[in-house]
Specification:
CATH class: Alpha Beta
Number of domains: 1
CATH superfamily: Zn-dependent exopeptidases
GO molecular function: N-acetylmuramoyl-L-alanine amidase activity
Radius of gyration: 15 Å
CATH architecture: 3-Layer(aba) Sandwich
GO biological process, one term: peptidoglycan catabolic process
Enzyme class: hydrolase
Structural class: alpha/beta
Domain MurNAc-LAA: 20-100
Largest sheet: 3 strands, parallel
Number of strands: 5
Keywords: Hydrolase
């Protein structure tokens, strides 16, 4: 489920003030969690592609870390997260993971 809420108004248009980087967790040689024929890397990729497309439709500056099933090193993943909008404070990074143990939320002040 993905939901964006904002207040309409000339001073409230966040779409021109922030960038969103969407990351599909795992990928390529790293399948993530597996349950039967389901692989976490496939589910996170589908979720990330949907989020990327929807954010683009809403006019939000958006980048996607991977849009195919490919293996990324840690440094490649970080570079793709930070390069599109710079390493500024006005960037939201959403890294999709589907963990069997529940959800986690991480943020930095």
């Amino acid at each position: 489920m993905f939901y964006i809420s904002y207040t309409r108004g000339e001073n409230m248009d966040f779409r021109k003030k922030i960038g969103v980087v969407v990351d599909a967790g795992h990928g390529g040689d790293d399948p993530g969690a597996i349950s039967g024929s389901l692989k976490e890397k496939d589910l996170t990729l589908r979720a990330a592609q949907y989020m990327y497309k929807r954010l683009q439709e809403l006019g939000v500056p958006t980048s996607i870390v991977r849009d195919t099933d490919e293996t990324l090193t840690r440094n490649e993943r970080i570079k793709r997260m930070t390069d599109p909008f710079g390493n500024g404070t006005d960037v939201i990074i959403i890294s999709n993971h589907i963990n069997a143990g529940g959800g986690d939320v991480s943020y930095c002040d």
